[in-house]
Structure formats: structure tokens, C-alpha cells
Design goal:
The protein is mainly alpha-helical and 213 residues long. It contains nine helices and two strands.
């Protein structure tokens, strides 16, 4: 198994799940997708099985036998080893201590915000803010429900952090939109009138075509 498989970001998530309880890969995949939108988008069945195989080869997880549910095929159940527990703690400690420059799609797009022109930038940022606000409201409601149900705050601390980031982004977007409208954020003349962007219907069709590709 290539060493680079152990550098996959989901290694930490898998080790963390197995710290909670032993599990087979199918359970891990379901749980990771349920807990995180990022994981839902990024993790495939093949990626997860390859990662678990790499963890087993490294001695960080170990088979605890096979489990059958109904008429389904047997599945290998894995548990965290002492070495895996130590690796989990090492990685957590390092990642919490050391801030990394994490590149997001939005950051990459904002780099070329000027290509939209002032009006296009205001329209796109405003639409993003509306969608982000809706998601943030829903996430806050779920977090409040969890805390009201006596889920320990430490168990949902990542949701609290994600809400903090989302609210900071909303504040930044609002300030940029205000600056564009007031004229304090100016555009070079050559970029002030960009090509007309596609209509909403066309954007949806384009997105679907990209998803099918």
C-alpha cells in the first residue's frame, strides 16, 4: 500500500471514528458522510477501503473478525490499535497547534472576482450570502437541538467552529458588497464590463453537465 495513502485527510477521521467504537468500512463511510458535508463530497467507497487497508498495513488498525447482517455478505470489523491511538493523538496535536493555509474553491474564485465586473460581483456575492445564511441558520438549529438534548458541547465543537467561520464569511461578503456599491472598491476600466454571465437556468444546466462529466 503506498505510503501516500496514509497522508489522505480522511485518515484522521477514520482513526477518530475507531476511537469511539470498532466498525467495518461500510459503517465508517455512512457515518463520515452523515457527519460532514465535506466528507460526503470527497469520500468514495474505494478511497475509504484503500485507506483502511493502508491503516491495517501500518498497524494502526486491526481486524476484530467478521460480521454478518441478515443476508448481506460478511464485513471485516476493525478496531484501533495502541499504535493507531498514538498516531491519532500525534496528528491531532500537530494539526491543532499548526495553522495551515487551507485552500478552498471560494478562495480560488475570489482571486479572480474582478472578472465578474462590479455588478456581476455584487450579484454573485449576494446570492452566495443568501444561500450561506440559509445553511447557517439550519446548522445553528441543529446545533441548538443537540445541545438542548444534552449532547456534550465537546462532542459538537466542530459544528460550533464551522458556524463561526460561516458567520465571519457572511460579514466579509457584506463589507465587500458595501465597498463595491459605494465605489471604494474600484475596477480597472478594461474589467468593469465583463461578458454577460449565463442566466440562472443556464447555470443550472451547466452545473448538471459538469456533475455528469
Amino acid at each position: 500500500m503506498p505510503r501516500r495513502a496514509l497522508d489522505n485527510p480522511i485518515v484522521l477521521a477514520v482513526l477518530g471514528l475507531l476511537l469511539e467504537q470498532s466498525s467495518h468500512p461500510h459503517q465508517m463511510l455512512t457515518e463520515l458522510r452523515k457527519r460532514s458535508d465535506n466528507h460526503a463530497a470527497a469520500i468514495t467507497r474505494g478511497t475509504l477501503y484503500n485507506t483502511v487497508g493502508a491503516l491495517a498495513t501500518a498497524g494502526w488498525v486491526a481486524s476484530q473478525g467478521r460480521q454478518r447482517s441478515g443476508n448481506r455478505p460478511e464485513k471485516t470489523v476493525y478496531a484501533l490499535t495502541q499504535e493507531g491511538h498514538e498516531e491519532l493523538v500525534r496528528r491531532l496535536d500537530s494539526q491543532i497547534r499548526n495553522p495551515e493555509r487551507e485552500f478552498s474553491q471560494f478562495l480560488g474564485a475570489v482571486t479572480y472576482l474582478g472578472a465578474l465586473g462590479p455588478n456581476g460581483a455584487v450579484e454573485a456575492l449576494t446570492e452566495r450570502a443568501g444561500r450561506l445564511q440559509q445553511r447557517t441558520d439550519a446548522d445553528q438549529e441543529r446545533l441548538s437541538d443537540a445541545l438542548a438534548a444534552d449532547v456534550p458541547r465537546l462532542h459538537v465543537i466542530e459544528a460550533e467552529y464551522a458556524l463561526c467561520l460561516a458567520r465571519a464569511e457572511l460579514t466579509w461578503i457584506a463589507s465587500v458588497v458595501d465597498d463595491i456599491r459605494s465605489g471604494s472598491l474600484t475596477w480597472p476600466a478594461a474589467a468593469a464590463t465583463p461578458p454577460t454571465p449565463p442566466a440562472p437556468h443556464d447555470r443550472e444546466e451547466s452545473n448538471r453537465a459538469t456533475d455528469r462529466a
